[in-house]
Amino acid sequence: MTLFVFLALLQDGLATGAIYLLLAVGLLIVFSVTRVIFVPQGDLLAFATLTVAQLEAGQVPGTLWLLDGLALAAVLAEAYRGRRPRVLAFWLLFPAAVTAATLWGPRAAPLLAVPLGLAVVTPLGPLLWRFAFRPVSDAPVLTLLILAMALHFVLAGIGMVLFGADGATVAPLSGATLMLGPLAVSGQSLAILVVAAILVGALRWFFGATLAGKALRAAASDRLGARLVGIDAADSGARAFALAAFVAALSGVLIGAATPIAYDTGFEISLKGFVAAIIGGLASYPAAAAGAILVGVLESLGSFWASAWRDVIVFALLIPALALLSLRAAGRK
């Protein structure tokens, strides 16, 4: 392997690792607050790519009708309970605004398709929490994991119906190329790194400087204690799922410009983000970030040395990670 090839593979690995970092952060947020391993995150990633691709083609995405149907069900459920009027108002107004902007606004421009796609897919996160996980939020972690897997298969079937079996790509955020000596660095790779850095910084600010972020941190550190001081567990779960859905949707927009994404592609991508989250012990954000970069670089280098074993190399990282976590947790519950 020459230095030029190594640097090209490193560039690709860092960009891919940034995607895995975002997915790992989304998984950690949801798990720390709700104890749910958010397996359907990969499906939301695929939904975002395919939604933006349809918007760029001037079509109305099927996810818009999925959003409207779930939002209407949420409105009926909250109205039946006769409380939480602000939640009722949100699920009435926001989907209506997104539907109006999608149906009667210009869709083909990439700069408009991306925010519209994010606005369509992101609310699916808290809606999944509302109907699938909130009613059984106190169930054991294994039960929540089984439910998450079942929900993944349901969403994969819905994606097949809405988008078909063919993959799609989206327009890159940047088509520029930066020359560093003989190495050509694509503008999309730089855009992925910049967006990931900005988002991680924004999340750090959100958790440290805002009341809603501090409430999520409290719910993550002590769920019972957070309830005792008046932090609503339902609102905390909805916010955590909304953040994870936004991160997954943004990841779909970023990676969808580099590789075709089909309705079932996101699951494998999300699993690699899960490997990074496991390296972080499902608790440490810096360790998960390091794990995500490691996964991305190893996958890129593995595709050169042994492409048939690329995925095996990535998932084999779970063995030493789990062994180390087991040793560190010796003697603790």
What key phrases describe this protein's structure?
333 residues; mainly alpha; two-stranded antiparallel sheet; globular
Element order: H for helix, E for strand: HHHHHHHEEHHHHHHHH
Distance between the termini: 47 Å
Largest sheet: 2 strands, antiparallel
Shape annotation: globular
| Helical fraction | over 70%
Question: Could you give the order of strands across the largest sheet?
Answer: 1-2
What would you call the structural class?
mainly alpha
Mean pLDDT: 83
Q: Report strand %.
A: under 5%
Spell out the blueprint of helices and strands.
Layout: H1 3-34, H2 41-56, H3 62-81, H4 85-104, H5 110-121, H6 124-133, H7 141-163, E1 177-180, E2 183-186, H8 187-209, H9 211-221, H10 223-228, H11 233-255, H12 266-279, H13 285-305, H14 310-316, H15 318-328
Helix pairs in contact: 1-8, 1-9, 1-11, 1-12, 1-13, 2-5, 2-7, 2-11, 2-12, 3-4, 3-6, 5-11, 6-11, 8-9, 9-11, 12-13, 13-14
